[in-house]
Amino acid sequence: MEIVVKRLLLALCLSLVAYQAQAISRYDSTNMSCGQVQSAIDREGAVILRYRSPRDPSAQRHDRYVRDRQYCKSNERAETTLVPTADRKACPVRECRTVETERRPKLPRKPKI
Questions:
Q1: CA–CA separation, 74 vs 48, rounded Å?
Q2: Distance separating alpha carbons of residues 55 and 95, to the nearest angstrom
Q3: What pTM, to 2 d.p., does this model score?
Q4: Distance (Å, whole) CA 83 – CA 46
Q5: Which interval of the chain is the signal sequence (predicted)?
Q6: Block means of pLDDT (10 residues each) for the chain, length 113 residues?
Q7: Read out DSSP for 62-110?
Q8: How far is CA 109 from CA 6, 31, 90, 101, in A?
Q9: Rounded to whole angstroms, what are the CA distances from 84 to 11, 72, 73?
């Protein structure tokens, strides 16, 4: 009986994680004002924004944008980037970017005597 309960709880937890991963909203940023884009990100915490690449209009771009670092992985931070909107060519939003860790030079070890 105890094993069945543990399996049931594990299945429930996994299904909740899968549900949250699929629940992110998607928007076309060029159909919204900058204020609307920022408001959607603030309200939902994280969204997917789609837009045509400014350099190559035939290319569709999309990425995940977040309210703050809370929505990033542990090795990421929320950095400001720009996306096009209906009223601006460059609307400031945040996206998660991997933190570059500094590599410290290894000091030579003392020889064992």
A1: 20
A2: 20
A3: 0.68
A4: 15
A5: 1-23
A6: 64 57 87 98 97 88 96 96 96 94 66 65
A7: EEEEESSGGGS-TTEEEEEEEE--SS-S-EEEEEEEE--PPPPPPPPPP
A8: 48, 60, 51, 23
A9: 41, 22, 25
CA 86, 90, 93 angle in degrees (round to 5)?
100
* CA 47 to mean position of chain CA atoms: 8
Please name the amino acid found at residue 102.
E
C-alpha 36/C-alpha 25 separation (Å) is 14
Structure tokens at 34: 């900058």
Do 59 and 53 meet the contact criterion of CB atoms below 8 Å apart?
yes
87 Cβ contact list (under 8 Å, min separation 6): 33, 34
The residue type of 89 is K
